[in-house]
């Protein structure tokens, strides 16, 4: 059994859905497939705007924005389907109604709750269309609502999977199907039947969870790039393909902000020794990248650029040392506010913390630590991380930058500079 994951970029047009179907046809002739699919293109971003408008009390705007998304999906379905169109429309219509009902309500709960009820619909739309298209071209498959399978807690927008319950449900659901299983990434459901999401770009993680539970031969993630490269090819056209990588290396790259694989994807695979293949959606003959437990030596420098960074300067009010107590208070606040620092540098009575520039979070952090620290914030920064750097290369990359902070270990250098 193999698990495939197609991301938003691989299903963002009629041609790409047709191309995905051709890949599925080819591979399903040889093996049993479980397929996880994300929302089409930038649908999740568009649904976020619907959730924001709804929560701000702008009902008409929310309905209008949702109408645009709805029509885009209907148009795609119309182009792709003839025999299957009516059945597909009926299923899509149930989802339209699910959201439109909610949009007519007044928000009385947390934003995160409504966000998940609205945003989860993107994956339900895309998988419905792809599933009916596969039927249309005689590729038998079974569409499953992953909300009946992936059980989570109610930590909306970043829900945690309840493993025992999910394990039973994944095994049962796949066992009950004798053809291709097709379902959604990124979303789940609480015991109270409330939809949840697993964190942005979380479909890779869903695919890894299925692969782990099913003991898959491997997980293949189809991308619009050759494979994992030593930098984002959109920003660095000279980027080279990395044909083999270790789980260790990829988890580090993802942690430092490489957008190509979701950081949570690696653990479920590493735990069961399941290889991860990152393959080129546009040219299946290319080798792609194989990620496994095996150590890979002599890697070239790997670069990760993280934009929209802020540097928070904290200094104790009373000149007391930044010892155990203030540090543990700070990390507690990080936990409470769901903040992951991208870099921390400490001195005797001061600390500098680099974070994604999210004004709300920074304000909350400043308030929470104000009894111990004076707080200053620098914005408009970029964080460049180079793994396996040579001093010369690090120097060349940052020679013309207005540098604010540098941190180095033997393997990794991080440079924070003004944009
Ligand atoms: N090191 C890297 N190697 C390859 N692609 C990268 C890397 N870093 C960032 N990317 C970007 O990741 C994108 C693919 O990931 P993503 O947009 O999440 O795809 P999808 O939504 O289809 O899963 C590529 O288009 C590429 O620009
Ligand atoms: N659609 C979700 C989940 C996801 O993983 O998407 P993608 O595979 O396109 O990165 C998001 O955009 O966050």
Poorly predicted spans:
none
Number of domains: 2
Measured between the Cα atoms of the first and last residue, the distance is: 46 Å
CATH class of the largest domain: Alpha Beta
CATH topology description of the largest domain: Carbamate kinase
Number of strands: 16
Summarize the structure.
GO terms for molecular function: aspartate kinase activity; ATP binding. With 419 residues, the chain is α/β, with parallel strands linked by helices.
Can you walk me through this structure?
By secondary structure, this protein is an alpha/beta fold. The protein folds into two domains: 2-224, Acetylglutamate kinase-like (Carbamate kinase, 3-Layer(aba) Sandwich); 302-418, VC0802-like. The chain is built from 13 helices and 16 strands. The chain has helices spanning 14-28, 43-55, 59-80, 85-103, 111-119, 121-136, 163-175, 203-214, 247-255, 266-272, 324-337, 359-369, 391-398; strands at residues 2-6, 33-37, 141-143, 180-184, 187-189, 195-197, 218-223, 244-246, 276-280, 289-292, 302-316, 343-346, 350-356, 373-387, 403-408, 412-418. The strands form three sheets. It has an eight-stranded mixed β-sheet with strand order 3-4-2-1-7-9-10-8, sandwiched between helices. Helix 3 (59-80) runs parallel beside helix 6 and helix 8 packs parallel to helix 10 (266-272). It is globular. It starts with a strand and ends with a strand. The mean pLDDT is 95. Bound molecules: adenosine-5'-diphosphate (ADP) and aspartyl phosphate (PHD). Residues 7-10, 38, 201, 223-225, 228-229, 231-234, 258-260 line the site of adenosine-5'-diphosphate. Residues 7-8, 38-39, 44, 122, 185-186, 200-203 line the site of aspartyl phosphate. Keywords: Amino-acid biosynthesis, ATP-binding, Kinase, Nucleotide-binding, Transferase. GO terms for molecular function: aspartate kinase activity; ATP binding. It is an enzyme of class 2 (transferase).
């Amino acid at each position: 059994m193999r698990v495939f994951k197609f991301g938003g970029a691989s299903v963002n047009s009629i041609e790409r859905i047709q191309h995905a179907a051709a890949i599925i046809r080819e591979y399903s002739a040889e093996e049993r497939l479980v397929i996880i699919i994300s929302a089409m293109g930038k649908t999740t971003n568009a649904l976020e705007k619907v959730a924001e408008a709804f929560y701000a009390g702008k009902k008409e705007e929310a309905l209008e924005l949702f109408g645009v998304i709805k029509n885009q999906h209907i148009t795609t379905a119309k182009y792709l389907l003839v025999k299957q169109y009516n059945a597909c429309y009926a299923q899509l219509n149930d989802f339209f109604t699910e959201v439109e009902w909610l949009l007519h309500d007044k928000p009385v709960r947390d934003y995160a709750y409504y966000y998940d009820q609205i945003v989860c619909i993107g994956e339900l739309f895309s998988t419905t269309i792809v599933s009916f298209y596969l039927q249309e071209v005689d590729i038998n498959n079974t569409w499953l609502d992953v909300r009946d399978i992936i059980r989570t807690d109610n930590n909306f927008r970043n829900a945690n999977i309840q493993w025992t319950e999910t394990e039973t449900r994944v095994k049962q659901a796949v066992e009950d199907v004798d053809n291709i299983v097709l379902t959604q990434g990124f979303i789940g459901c609480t015991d109270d039947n409330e939809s949840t999401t697993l964190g942005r770009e979380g479909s890779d993680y869903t695919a890894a969870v299925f692969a782990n539970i099913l003991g898959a031969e491997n997980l293949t993630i189809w991308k619009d790039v050759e494979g994992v490269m030593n930098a984002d090819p959109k920003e660095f056209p000279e980027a080279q393909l990395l044909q083999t990588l270790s789980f260790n290396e990829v988890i580090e790259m993802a942690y430092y902000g490489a957008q190509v694989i979701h950081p949570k994807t690696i653990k479920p695979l590493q735990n069961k020794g399941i290889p991860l293949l990152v393959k080129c959606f546009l040219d299946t003959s290319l080798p792609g990248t194989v990620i496994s437990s095996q150590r890979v030596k002599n890697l070239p420098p790997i670069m990760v650029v993280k934009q929209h960074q802020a540097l928070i300067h904290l200094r104790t009010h009373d000149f007391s040392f930044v010892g155990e107590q203030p540090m543990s208070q700070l990390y507690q606040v990080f936990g409470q506010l769901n903040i992951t620092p991208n870099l921390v540098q400490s001195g005797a009575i001061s600390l500098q913390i680099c974070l994604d520039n999210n004004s709300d979070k920074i304000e909350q952090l400043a308030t929470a630590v104000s009894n111990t620290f004076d707080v200053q914030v620098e914005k408009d920064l970029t964080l460049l991380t180079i793994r396996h750097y040579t001093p010369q290369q690090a120097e060349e990359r940052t020679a013309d930058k207005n540098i604010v902070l540098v941190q180095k270990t033997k393997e990794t250098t991080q440079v924070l500079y003004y944009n």
